[in-house]
């Protein structure tokens, strides 16, 4: 599971959704393809988390 600071979330209610997306596409399959993660995060409007993945703040 990844630690995502609450300050990074556009919508605090998306906390579990963000973790579900990260777990589904990265942890459970040991997949390093960020495409589905970014798409899932875009769908719920969590652009800050996307930026943190792209700039390497969240290391996958």
Report on this model:
This protein is mainly alpha-helical and 60 residues long. Helix 1 runs antiparallel to helix 2 and helix 2 packs antiparallel against helix 3. It starts with 14 loop residues before the first helix and ends in a 6-residue tail after the last helix. The model has no long low-confidence stretch (mean pLDDT 88).
H and E order: HHH
Q: What level of helicity do the residues show?
A: 40-55%
On the 0 to 100 scale, the average pLDDT is 88
Helix count equals 3
Number of strand elements: 0
What summary fits the major beta sheet? Answer: none
Give the percentage of residues in beta strands.
Answer: under 5%
Distance between the termini: 11 Å
Low-confidence stretches: none
Broad structural category: mainly alpha
Taking Cα atoms only, what radius of gyration do you get, to the nearest Å?
A: 10 Å
**Apparent shape:** globular
């Amino acid at each position: 599971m990844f630690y995502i600071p609450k300050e990074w979330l556009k919508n605090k209610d998306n906390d579990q959704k963000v973790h579900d997306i990260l777990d589904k596409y990265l942890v459970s399959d040991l997949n390093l393809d960020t495409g589905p993660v970014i798409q899932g995060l875009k769908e719920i409007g969590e652009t800050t988390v996307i930026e943190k993945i792209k700039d390497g703040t969240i290391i996958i």
